[in-house]
Each structure stands twice: as structure tokens, then as C-alpha cells.
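chain below, 481 aa
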Amino acid sequence: MQPKQAVRIAYIALVASVCTLPLIGSFFGWGSQSTENRTMLTLPKLLETTEDTTRIDTRYTAKLGDYYAEHFGFRQELVTADAWLNETLFGRSVNDKTTVGRDGWYYLNETLGDYTGEAALSERGIYRLQKTIALMNGYAEDNNITMLFFAAPNKNSIYPEHMPRHIRRSSQPTNLDRLNRVMGGRSYYLDIKSELLSLRESQPRDIYLRHDSHWNNLGALAAYNAIQRSLNAHIAQYDYLPVTVEEADITETRVAGDLTNTLYPSLEKTDVQYDLGIAQNFAADRPLTDLMAEINTTCQGRYYSAICYRDSFFNALIGVMSNAFAKVRYTRAFPYDMTAARSGGCQIAVVEIAERHLPLLLEKAPIMEAVQTRLPGKRGYANAEQPCSFADNGEFLLFSGRLGDWAPLRDNSDIYIELRGVGSGKSYVYEAFPICEGRASTDDGFSVRIGKYSLPNDEYDIYLHVGDSNGTVYAKLILEP
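prediction:
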């Protein structure tokens, strides 16, 4: 046998072995287990049997292909090897959820739009965020509830220097920076980004996890203490409970990061987390490992009750928050059901959302009864009709839609619904959320829920007003089911 021929045969044998290894592994069940946090496909059946018939599944081969893609032998090892080669040789990620940064840092792809400026909202969009939060607070105040709202910053907002060089950071302020500027000084709004940037300068340790998209316990503790300071400043005789951690009490532990877990499923790639030595003085209705569910906690010796509208950033806050309140309800439900704060007897409502999710606030209006208000300035009739979707869910009357051409919409325009009693002649005015249900990018939407039994029994003419503090232009509302 010639040397060249031997090399060819060896090469063919090697390629054939590599190609058949996953199939052999699948047969013996080697290395096909998944570490992904989702339900894996089950082996499909060629024949589908019902009560009446048995027939061949025409999608059997497609289903079998999908099943094999999830279960082929040594899948986790091959996925890990592919990720390692791409990161080592090219500095890139093979996962569409993760960006490989520098110096061992990883970032969530969903945050890139904020970083590059591609996710920047219009000026109207920022005003809509501001107005949405203000209306939520108005409802809370009307029900004697103290509300606090804050956005948890993206990791690349606090640690931009580890981002890849080829991804250019925008020179313009982010949505969160712009929101912080317009909301500054309001008692119900917390600028957590400034808190964390200040902490970063004074804290030698990281305050975000390098292999995860979230802050670590040190970053979360800074957010908690900001919450406590704000409540203490605005509630008379508040049951203040700041938390300080002594250096000797901090110990390092190792945790798996959500960004590297899917990249390297067969490699134990862990991150440094800090155990702050804070005792758990509360009781929970379920294990705190089940963080996707609603959680309720109680703590002896505390006075106030709170509800926390949250996402995954709040996971690291649950321990310290639960120590501070007699009762806490943690909910991930969206849109925010503000009526739950009132029905639950809560004195405090904390609303947290990740920076990257701020535009989601403009997709669906919070569930709450609109607070009565007054129309500002002068009024002018547009001699027009405004179509409006209408729904009666038994508790609320929901009016929603998009403004017609008659409406002089500006960046700072507010939207009101006025109901004029035909019999009484009295007028009832409610400010609407500047939201078109399910369409976050639509700047001309409106949505308002009016308590079904909050109005006297009468017939009403309904009008929609658009304007600012100087006055409004209005049109008659035409209801559509």
C-alpha cells in the first residue's frame, strides 16, 4: 500500500469515526443528557392511535430529526467543544443569547441594543415611560400605598470595558439614562444605576457576575439599601432596616452562570458569588430555589407588608427584602396588576424591571382603576369622531385604541377620557396610559380602565382629550366591541 493511499484511508476512517460516534453514542445513551432549562423532546411514534383509527404520522421523519438533534450521543461534549473553539480562535459565541466579552466576561445579547443605541426610544417613548410610572404611582397614592420603581442596569451599563471591541458603544445616553434624568427627584423613583456606579468605584470586588447576566449579592445589597433609605425618607416612623456587611463575614462561593451554562453544557464553568452571611429570619411558602413562581414570605417582629413586582434581577434581593417586612408577595406577573397591592393590604409596592425590558412597559397597560383628575387649561372641540375599542370584564370598563388624525400629538401630550352624564350634567375625567395594547412602538396609543361601579347610574357621552398643561383638543368617542 502506497503511503498516500494509507493516509487517505486513515483520513476517511477518522472522518467516518467522528461522524458515526454520535450515532453510536445515541444507541448506548452516552452523553445525550441535556443541561438546558427546558423540556426535551420525547421519541416520536410512527403510528398515531386515536379512539377510532390508527394512522401513520406524516411528520414522523421531521419529528425524529428534531428528536435526534437534541439527543444524539456526546451532544453536550460536542456543543462545548464547538463553543470553546469559537471563543478561543475567533473570540465569538456560537449561542444567539450570549456575547463573549474580554477578560473572561460574558454579556447577554438582549442588552446590545441599549449598548449600541439601536434600542433607543423616541422622545415621545421616554415621555410615555415617565407618564406610565407616574400614573402607577398616582393609583398607589390614591390607595395609601408607597410605591418605588427602579430599573436594574444591564451588565454592560456598569462594566462596559469588557465588551468586545468590535461592538461599538453609542455616544448617546441610553433609555435608562434619559429616564433617570427626567425622573430625578421624584420620591417614587430610584436611580439604581448611579448607586451601582458609585459602589463600583469604592468596592474592589465585582458587583456583577462575570458569567451571568445579573448582579451578584453585593450589587443586590446596594439596591436593597437604596430601597430602605428611600422608604425611610418618605414614610413617617418607617420600620427602617439597613443592612451592613462586615468584611470578615463575606465568603466566596462558586455558582454556574446563565450565560455560560448553555455555551459549555459539559464543562463546569463557574463564577464567583459572595455569601454575605445574612441570616434568614423569615419563612417562605415555597423553597427559594423555585424562583420562577410566585413567592410569599412572612417575618416576625416586622410591621409593613409589601408587594414586589419583579423579574430575575430581584432573585438576589428576596432574602434581604423578606427580613425587612412582615409580609412580602413576590410576583412576576405582567402586565403589573396594581390592584393586587390594594387587595393584599400592602402599604408598600416595589416595582423592578431590567433595563433591557423598559420598552415592555409600553406594550400593556398596568391593571388598575384610573384615578379621577381634572382637564388642564382651555379646551377646543375638534368636531371629529374617535374610534375606540371597548370591553367590559365585569370589574373594569376598558377603553383603548390609537389616536386619529384630528389629534395634535406632541412628545409631551397627555390623553384623557371624559364621561359627561346626560342626566346629571356632571363630568368625570380620567387620564389614560399612553399605551396601545401589544404595540410598544406605537406612540399614539391610549388605554384606560374605569371602575365599572365607580360612576353614578346614568347615560354618558364620552370624549377623548389630547393636550398638555395649556389645554386640550377633544373629539367624541365612538365605541367598538
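The longest strand covers residues 378-392. The two ends are 83 Å apart (CA to CA).
thats it, cya
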